[in-house]
Amino acid sequence: QLQLQESGPGLVKPSETLSLTCTVSGGSISSGSYYWGWIRQPPGKGLEWIGSMYYSGNTYYNASLKSRVIISVDTSKNQFSLKLNSEGAADTAVYYCARHLGFYSSSRFDPWGQGTLVTVSS
Amino acid sequence: QSVLTQPPSVSAAPGQKVTISCSGSSSNIGNNYVSWYQHLPGTAPKLLIYDSNKRPSGIPDRFSGSKSGTSATLGITGLQTGDEADYYCGTWDSSLSAMLFGGGTKVTVL
What we know:
Structural class of chain B: mainly beta
Shape of chain B: globular
Number of strands of chain A: 11
Helix content of chain B: under 10%
Oligomer: heterodimer
Largest interface: A-B, 26 and 29 residues
Number of helices of chain A: 0
Helix content of chain A: under 10%
């Protein structure tokens, strides 16, 4: 059974880099035709897709975040990571990692990690 | 404001049926499949429906999905208190090359 778990600091200062890692267990990140994605949910708001990447490096980002985001993968550790240059409180959110199936027309996320709250504050 | 439009809330009594709409455009719902997610606070979102009308293994047939033109619908029959959650639609947008989510709909069991 595939499981994903986010990890990283829960507090980040404005203008610093928010860094999170997603550890995949129960399957290899480099097997199958899957992308791996990050999604966030600000307090009281809906879900927002951040970006997704294939294990070989092909990456897609939300245009509104593209200038501040990097998603990378470490196949040796079966992990993928998110780096976001935080601007301020607007980046405060629960951050989820998930497997991105059926990329393009049949896109969906399954399974998801439990999520981790990141607060951006000085 | 989301590109995909969902009603903020729907409600019904236990055992009844609710439907949740998700409205988009030709660049997203009109030409791509829709997925639906159930999200209880403090838990991981769960995939309920994919490819507009397919259920993953383990999802009861009380949950159903449909799509027509640029809109999609999630139906929940035999409503239970455990169904109280936020529900999100999602789809790929071919023009934006991006995954989109609706604003979410809160289901309340009266």
